[in-house]
Amino acid sequence: MHISSALIVGGGIGGLTAGIALRRKGIPVEIIERDPDWSVYGVGIIQQLNVVRAMDQIGALKDFLSRSQGFDSTTIFAGPEGKQVAKFDTPRLAGPEYPSNVGIRRTELQKVLANKAAEVGAKVRLGLTVATMTEDGDGVDVTFSDGTAGRYDVVIGADGLFSQTRRTIFPDAPKPRYTGQWVWRYNLPRVPELDGIHVFAGPCNAGLVPMSADLMYMFLVTQEAENFKQPVAGAAEAMRTRAARMAPPQVAAQLVHMTDDAGVVGRPMEVILLEGEWHKGRVVLLGDAVHAATPHQGQGAGMAIEDALVLADELDAADTLEAAFTAYRTRRWPRVEQVAKTSLMIGDAQMGKIPPVDVGALTAKTLALVAQPI
By C-alpha distance, which of 374, 272, 280 is closest to 330? Predict the structure, then answer.
């Protein structure tokens, strides 16, 4: 099947990876991004074993590792004393010489993907949204917010949880919903004993993740009312207060460094999972536009990145768009369902909505699944 043009709506992790993957298949790509500044929060993000493998597959592994901190181990602590209860390593999917997982600033991850997209010839246009989109069977005519227009063989909606593309092709689809929890993040000086991700189980779970030789970030999961809002002013105190509930000394020792309101990134956990089709005609969705999960399994970005690679594979291999889109969803569903539903289950258990669950066993199941070839 010959594809002469593809439009990707959204210049985030999934959209950029899709642009790279399609260009590597020889497909001309245009990416539009609504944010004219292409800004990204500077806090950290965990990228697990399947993402390290994916970065190798798109030819970006060297740059990716140069901007991040690799590690293999996950250590779990529990109780007010912060007692270690488990520690395990995950496999090195990109090869024995590369780490299993990394911690990286989101700004640096975007640079890795943006640089590779430019290198392979993907065109990126900032400050644009889709004004109208009309399909006639042979292509999709798109007009943009700046008055320009284009015609494309394929349109890919990688525009996130509140996807305009999803609303356009599936106006009756379920809307994102708030789960009842927030996740807070803050960058801190790295402590010497942090040899991988350290997770602290308690009333409001927390974790420490290395991002470089001298930098780490803390994440904190809390239960908040549906109408809760946190302005920038007072954000550091709000996060300190919540983190103090954890009590373990490893967490409490970091609170003195948590002083910059602007350095706090706190966001409500909102989810969506489309269990039906992911495409309509020549328009297809990926990433958070179809399966936004809570961060309890650390796989939000990983699922979007894998979506992009599989979609490019199927567009390159299939004889028709319908066959490509159907095969793409079929391949992706087992993983995204596991991540989405397991993440939600862990959060519901933390809030007491359901009985306690074995987080270790659930996480092991997810890791075993994502370790398999995509």
Answer: 374
Residue 63 structural domain: 6-176+270-370
Query: The CATH number of the domain where 12 resides is what?
Result: 3.50.50.60
* C-alpha to C-alpha distances, 110 to 15, 106, 267, 297, nearest whole angstrom: 11, 6, 19, 21
Residue 338 maps to a domain: yes
Cα angle: 351, vertex 356, 362; to 5 degrees: 105
Q: In Å, how far from its chain's centre is CA 63?
A: 19
**What Å distances lie between residue 240 and 205, 234, 264, CA to CA?**
13, 10, 10
Q: In sequence order, which residues have a C-beta less than 8 Å from that of residue 316 and are 6 or more positions away? A: 25, 27
CB of 165 closer than 8 Å to CB of 159: yes
List the strands of the sheet with 44-47, edge to edge. 44-47, 101-105, 69-71
User: Is residue 26 domain-resident?
Assistant: yes
**Is 211:69 a contact under the CB 8 Å cutoff?**
yes
How many structural domains are present in the chain? 1
332 found inside a domain: yes
Residue 237 placed within a domain: no
Q: pLDDT tens digit string along 178-197?
A: 999 999 999 999 999 999 99
pTM of this structure: 0.96
- Asked whether 308 and 17 are in contact (CB, 8 A), the reply is yes
